[in-house]
Amino acid sequence: MPKRPPPSLLKMQREYERCRKDLAAIGYISQGSVQDRTGRSGAGAGYQWTRKVAAKTVTVALTQEQFAAMKDAVSNKRKLTKLISQMEGLSRQILFATHPHPARRKTLSNKVLGIN
Question: Which of 10, 42, 60, 81 lies in the 20 to 30 Å Cα band around 97?
Fold first, then answer.
């Protein structure tokens, strides 16, 4: 009879699978930030997308439609970064729980493992 994993391991594996599904649902991504400057007085672009390229700030004027699409893409990039970070932590926890490691004089802390 195969040995069943502990409930905490099953919970981590389910959470990892949920993250994978969330990852598949993310749409277009883009780095940077977008700004709506239509409410200010004076000349200049109403909508802007700003990002860093080779340590320099690059700003691009956008149409209202581009602004809406880019805003979603920037938001998706943030979700993606957060999801990947969460998946990395879960992966390490699952790997260390399922693959034996040598006896240690001192147990590995969560900080050393990069968990939390």
Answer: 81
